[in-house]
Amino acid sequence: MHIFTSIIFCAVYILCVNAYLDPVTPTTNHAFDLDLYEEVIDLEQCEEQLAYIMQNNTGLRNRFIDASFRPPRNVLKGNLRDLGSYFQCLDISQQTDDMVIGGKYSVVRIPLQQDNFQLPSLPSLPDLTWPDWNWPEFPRPEWNPNNTQEDDELTSKLDTYERAKYSAQSMLGDGIEPRAETAQNTTSTRMQMELAFCIPKVCTPRHALDVLTLNQTANLTMTEAFVRLPNDKQWVAADYVAVVLFSIIGFMTVLCTSYDVRHTILLKRDPKRANKICTMFSVYTNTKNFFVFTSNPSAITCLDGIRSFAMMWVIVGHTFVTQLTYIPENPLDLVEFMKSFWSLWITSATITVDTFFMISGLLVVYTTAAKVSRMSLLKKLHLFYLNRILRMFPVLGAVVLIQASFFHRLADGPYWSSMAMNTNNCRVYWWSTLLYIQNWVNPRNMCLSHTWYLAVDMQLHIASPIVLFWILGQRSRSAWAAMAAAFAASVAGATTYNVINGFQSGVVSLSTTANTDQYMIYYYVHTLNRISPFIIGMMVGYILHLYRGKAVRIPMVLVGLFWIVAFAASSAVMIATYFNIQPDWDNQVADNIINSTIRPVWAASVGWLVFACKHGYGGPVNWLLSLHIFKILGRLSYSMYIVHFPIIYLINATTLQPIYFAVNLSIYKFLIDFTLSLIGGFLLTVLIDFPFSSLIKMFIGGGPRPPPKVEPSAPEKPEYFTAVSVVESIRNDDSEKSRM
């Protein structure tokens, strides 16, 4: 019976393989006004405006030229991009007698493979010199992909960077199409310059270039990557909903805070006698409650530190990996850093998400086993699910709406297309995020792409009663049989699935045999491969439950051995990243072994850390992880996780030119990302999480709970999953609330 139920636990997810949908994205919800870009095009007027600019208005001509691209710097370090002057271009607007000349910012991609074509200078303007006019040319033929004497080493490095960038785009959810590796899709044909033109808004880049060069560039291959115009961010339903909803929340916050300050500070009355409804949205009360921590002898204090360090590891990893896609001026140096042994603390950061899965499984058992009986779980199963959903929804829903509206209007820049993509995804696929199914439905276009974790965690939480039913029984043998069978089935299912599909074993891979797109959507965000760390967490939680309030005596020799094994195992998991990220890595057998074992091995290592710290074998490690400061970070971990990625995207999208990559500068950037995420998480917690938790308690609780009955004999486990207890746990159970 145990094996049968455990197989069902895994088979549910195996059946979902290749079941992804591909909904059509409506242009009405697009972040930019696509119709505007088409409406302004007038090629006849384009020729008139270009003639006027080049012949009659030197100042206006220089503004267009100055806002356009220069030859990219650091081409030999992989930089093939120059983005001109974005804001200067869009600021151009001049009225003449019969027309209005406005600037349009257009970024074009020009492949370096041009059949020996060289971009000419302008023959019609031989007398003009910089700053009046000097057409920026391509890099001189010291390195030219068309040259038979091309630099093979540089070409190889650029190809490696292209694979790294593609891997990063796949991981970050940039909505890219699968990359076909064909004989025609060589390194030279894939490499292309990305250059910004500032042209009159009535022109297209192709037509403007043809006019300026007297059709001498007719054979030049070029594609328009994106175009920007002033006021091109259209208003959609999400904007109006966000304005109305957050205006109401803001009004309630000001009203409740004013009442609370008057009652507590000005009139100096007892805060307990204040109207609870009127203080629900009070910043004063919610901030004060945020820093209040109740002591609980059964609490696992080290979890706050583990969550905090895991969160910092997530943020620093995302800070570094987002630079692969569009920031660095020297991408080849970034690739060299990734290939080095000293980058392991970054390249192995993806394993930290399994820390959260382990903690989630641990808390499902540890917080439930002491309060819920087997029959109680079955009777109140809907409240078991409601408890989890109500914990997650307010903050998640708020950030989805903010991403779909306010973040898009908060700033601007030449990299804003990435931010617009995230906005568009949230306007179209918000429902799959709030239903926790986006890793199945639209894995290539996820709203808040990092929240795939929440989808998988919710799916595991929904399936967990299959094993919890046996854990909550009176016989520990049945509990262990159920967990062991579930773990064996999950590992066997994941191994079979991985061997059949032959996935790579690294998120960011530089190998020519890697297929990162398939890896991300069919392996990395797939629920099947995350079951084993969740089950290990349930095992650790059950052990902690069995020894709750009891002293555990373990010989120090055995304790030392466990620490050595845990450290060696976790180090081996991280070091594996150094090998599978190398460009010459090609070992499918090793990939299969790594994919099937690293997650349960990592979860088991963290599980020992939790157990040792809880029962007095953690020493200085437990002291560090149990510091009071980590209680604050632990309480903020969920909100920080939700908001940190949009903030990183927002900061990156405001960059005006490629930035030179250096490890120390990236660490400074991480400190900025972390600080802003900390502030954003705190605001979400105080302004959204606490108030809506109180609202849920008011509407579902239905009044105070009756006092528990006193039984002369040993009482049965209380009925924990009642409506009142669900909402109380939302507000009071800090450890489970912060588990993400």
TrEMBL record:
Keyword Membrane among record annotations: yes
Residue stretches making up the Acyltransferase domain: 302-687
Annotated transmembrane regions: 240-259, 309-327, 342-368, 389-411, 452-472, 479-500, 520-544, 556-581, 638-661, 667-688
Signal peptide: 1-19
Domain of life the protein comes from: Eukaryota
Domain Nose resistant-to-fluoxetine protein N-terminal: start-end pairs: 58-207
Matching InterPro entries: Acyl_transf_3_dom, Nose-resist-to-fluoxetine_N, O2_lipid_transport_reg
Keywords on record: Membrane, Signal, Transmembrane, Transmembrane helix
Alphabetical list of Pfam families matching this protein: Acyl_transf_3 (PF01757), NRF (PF20146)
PANTHER family to which the protein is assigned, alphabetical: O-ACYLTRANSFERASE (PTHR11161), O-ACYLTRANSFERASE LIKE PROTEIN (PTHR11161:SF0)
Protein name: Nose resistant to fluoxetine protein 6
Taxonomic source organism: Loxostege sticticalis
